[in-house]
Amino acid sequence: MVTWVLPLLWLLGCTHWYGNLGAPTEEENSFGIIISSSSTAAAAVDAVYLDFAKAFDSVPHQRLIAKIESYGIKSKVLNWIRDFLIGRQQRVSVKGMYSDWSNVTSGVPQGSVLGPVLFVIFINDLPEILESWCTMYADDTKVSSTVQTESERQTMQADIDKLVDWADKWQLRFNADKCKVVHIGRNNPKQDYTMRLHYSQDRAKLETSQCEKDLGVMVDNELNVEAQVAKANKILGLIRRSYQFLDKESLRLLFTALVRPHLEFNNVAWSPRFQKDKNLIESVLRRASNLVPGLAELAYEKRLESLRLPSMQYRRKRGDMIEVYKFTHEMYDVSSPLIKEDDTRNRGYMYKLRKCRVNTGLRQHFSQIELQTSGMGCQFML
């Protein structure tokens, strides 16, 4: 069923199924492109982070079956899914005592392989009703738009109202208290937005957030990395307090497993653009390399060599080049600002990138644009 459904879902270009290991990077990459390309014109961008209330537990079975059927899944497969969902019962067990059985009339089973796929099918038509950009990864959904003019701000508010209408129709709910707005851009007017409460005419003002967690990455309104680095430093401090002695191999394993993922997860989309931010990220590894006795007196490069760890800057460049390689070799279909060079008049490397012109620092230092404008392309990878 996954093989049948996913190509249909990707036609919208909005939903990323988290059974695909590359999907978080693809989703964040799409959002990063939206932010950086909007900033090319020094535009202000508002991003609304949505929160479904009990998302997986609230999906109504009959409506889900109707949507599955609309994707062309019928006969035996549809009956199998119907039997998988409908007719379930549950009860509570406490110290050997059991409650009465109750019917499960909504929700997709969590912890199953099929559950996330069914939820993605159920919400995948959501972007079709919106005029703003909509990026989704499972139940993590955000809506973003440039808000330079009053009409653009009204469009954003209208889209929020459409979201509530859509949720009422399909019997889902948004938790207005947990939906947050991040205003991005120096000239952002910081418009207030409201969300109509479900099945009511009352409205709740959406809270403005300076920093929001976005698929594991802390995104603030200036697109800085301080919050993400602070998270990595906190984990490194926990390691330092938990071990009286660390040898080289133990530190290398702990750092690569627990700390480094926070510094480079989705760095293709959220690569630092200021030298101070790059130094801040590198300082975490610099601090970690001092935890092994006998290495503190060595130079930083020698410590890394002894620990067999590459620098964070090297890791970022390597990650950028891997993503460019995937794009140029069409290993996955994802929105990208990269433009292939079509000039075949001369012999030479066939995977060249066309240099592009940018007029803002944010756009220039968006990682893939930085590779493109520097002229590195993919030649360094081979």
Automatic annotation (TrEMBL):
Keywords for the protein's UniProt record, in alphabetical order: Signal
Domain (Reverse transcriptase): residue spans on this chain: 1-201
Range of residues in the leader sequence: 1-22
Keyword Lyase appears in the UniProt entry: no
TM spans (from-to): none
Top-level taxon of the source organism: Eukaryota
The protein, known as: Reverse transcriptase domain-containing protein
Source species of the chain: Elysia crispata (lettuce slug)
